[in-house]
Batch of 3 targets.
Target 1
Amino acid sequence: MKEYGVDEVDIKVHKTVVEMAMREHSVLPVAYGMVFKNNKLLGVAMKTGHRAMKKAMDSVDGKVELGVKVLLPQSSTELNGKVEECRSEITRCLGGIAADSRSLKLFSDRLLLNTSFLVDSDRLDEFSDCVGRLAGDYDALKVQYSGPWPPYNFVDIQILGKKRGGFR
């Protein structure tokens, strides 16, 4: 089987193809570099995983993933003692628009929030406006907003594997 390298050009092509597909369709993400040895194995995986893929698609159809990270100022690890209150308000406001959310690892002491939101495509502008308002309300914080992405943090399909979890 041919080995495929991973370089910036390949990743850029992959990203472009995914973005083009997302303009017209909902996308079920798979791990980068997922390759089947032949059409027969692809067919077996598709048949075996059809029910899981259908369940996953039902949950993410018409939705995209958006990422929001909120960082405390570099000179401070506190927000006038109201870090938890601030985190709760941001999560509540954005969570009220999103269909679902996943809290991700806080990999820095300055990272107040690291969350992926699953948002209906027709509410994307509303969500973006809310992120902008919150960034203005908390101008001492640095807000990083990314996406739209395929729903990587909301789809975990296990096909032909022994790992438990995800859609089956």
Target 2
Amino acid sequence: MDMSNTYASWEGKHFSKARIVFDHFHVIKLMNERLDKLRRRYVAELDASQRNQFKKLRMLFLRNMEDQAEDSLLILRNMRKHFTELSDAYLLKEH
């Protein structure tokens, strides 16, 4: 189901023993939004030249790992050393 509270409350009222399963699209959408928010927080802390380079990497974090080019995977691995929280969030999204 959708991740809306409306659906969850209706389901709980009418199907109290049902197991709730959120659809893949909405879970990934939420993870991408959180990941982008975290990325923007890092960008705000960088100087101007670093900020311009980092902004160009936005799509790396939004793209699925299996769709990444080899050079993109190398960039992500290198970023893991410097931005562990962002990298961990990306890996959680992929999991």
Target 3
Amino acid sequence: MKLNEIKDNEGATKDRIRVGRGIGSGKGKTGGRGVKGQKARSGVAISGFEGGQMPIYRRLPKRGFNNIFASDYVTVSLGRIQAAIDAGKLDAKATVDAAALKAAGVIRRAKDGVRVLSDGDLKAKLTLEVAGASKPAVEKIEKAGGSIKLLAAAAEASE
């Protein structure tokens, strides 16, 4: 095989259809856009428009607010941590923190911290350093012989 002989498989690429090139082409006159009107023109953005009727996003009342100071934690289940240990991605003897979970591929990014939830079972004896944990998760960790250090509680106490 030579570089000048390399080509795509048959049917892998389709030819571009040139629209609006005369009625005889089969794609002429309106160019596949239907008939005249706003949608036949370019630059149309009418999503959410309901033909003059009051749109649903204006009929429904506003509710709640978005707290800009709220902490956004990444949640990780105990079952997911155990699966990473079983797969050999996490070292059970070392301290498990946000950086270790990220390196193991358990979480994508740490955001404001990691919060551990109690879904699944934990067999390994772990030392965790996380921003938060649910009460059942703490009980399961301590039952397995491990310990947990909550970083968020320490940060609030120092303020």
